[in-house]
């Protein structure tokens, strides 16, 4: 082995080690399909690993056979003539036809089974209509009369039937720890389902390139213990009657929100108020969300103010206009109002 070959082999070895380390790290990332937390993701990950192991076994055995042949039958100095020539071998041909057939069949059955199981929501599922917008998600619970955005609350341990569609271009609904990607296509409804076995917060992400802020189109799934979910539903339904007892500053914020000064009401809905716009996210419970701007900013007073002042600083291409023209005290009043919505 020459000096250069040896160096290259060392480099290849390091690359393989690095790749292995990185892959092993995947199971600790917040968004990874290798750490399934519900039955749909478990089925999909199981199928992925099953086919991966078969492919690895094939890859290793073919490589080993190739290396053996290359070394064993290499040209040796002093060797005379052409090696023995063989044409056709029925036993070998039958073996290398039958083995791939068996492998394909053993992959096909669990694949078809998984395709049906992951596409068919079980009975008793909670229905959620999820609509993609550039660049945020609307979540509607038709059975509960609730509309919210970017934070999907679900009861842990119960299947959720998803009706996925889009308002503009093709998006894709993806919560790696709960289920693989399903496209959200304008003019049609794709059915999928998720279930979170344990209460936790799961990160989601649009997985279909949809324009400037595709990477900023995120959401969270909050799986709550069933009783906490029921409590949230009751609280949220009460919230739909309109905000109660606003401070003087928040009340001024609402007036600005609903006037041509702020003009927020032209695009946003706040249930039980004059604001019934349907261009942007429903903000009825915005004060209780942990993030704003479709998952890209923590929901703090300062972040919300900075966002309203100039949304394009955070989300290039957003249709939400700048409000830098508003005096500071008006911005503060609007933020005060929105933060009180919980
Ligand atoms: Cu929506 Cu990418």
Give keywords:
binds dinuclear copper ion, alpha+beta, Immunoglobulin-like, 5-stranded mixed β-sheet, 12 strands, single chain, 342 residues, 3 domains
Helix-residue proportion: 25-40%
Structural class: alpha+beta
The bound ligands are: dinuclear copper ion
Number of domains: 3
The count of β-strands is 12
Give the low-confidence spans. Answer: none
Main sheet overview: 5 strands, mixed
Into which percentage range does the β-strand content fall? 15-25%
Question: How do the helices and strands follow one another from N- to C-terminus?
Answer: HHHEEEEEEEEEEHHEEHH
The strand order across the widest sheet is 3-2-1-5-8
Radius of gyration: 28 Å
Write the layout of secondary structure elements.
Layout: H1 3-25, H2 39-72, H3 90-119, E1 126-133, E2 136-141, E3 146-149, E4 151-155, E5 160-166, E6 171-175, E7 179-184, E8 190-194, E9 200-206, E10 218-224, H4 226-239, H5 248-257, E11 291-292, E12 297-298, H6 301-309, H7 328-339
Parallel strand pairs: 1-5, 4-10
Antiparallel strand pairs: 1-2, 2-3, 5-8, 6-7, 6-9, 9-10, 11-12
This protein binds dinuclear copper ion.
Dinuclear copper ion is lined by residues 132, 135, 171, 206, 208-210, 214, 217.
Structure in words:
The chain is of the alpha+beta class. It has three domains: 3-71 and 88-117, no CATH class; 126-224, Sandwich (Immunoglobulin-like); 248-339, Sandwich (Immunoglobulin-like), CATH 2.60.40.420. The protein is 39% helix and 19% strand. The strands form three sheets. It has a five-stranded mixed sheet. Strands 4-10-9-6-7 form a five-stranded mixed sheet. The structure holds dinuclear copper ion. The site of dinuclear copper ion has 9 residues, from loops. Dinuclear copper ion binds at residues 132, 135, 171, 206, 208-210, 214, 217.
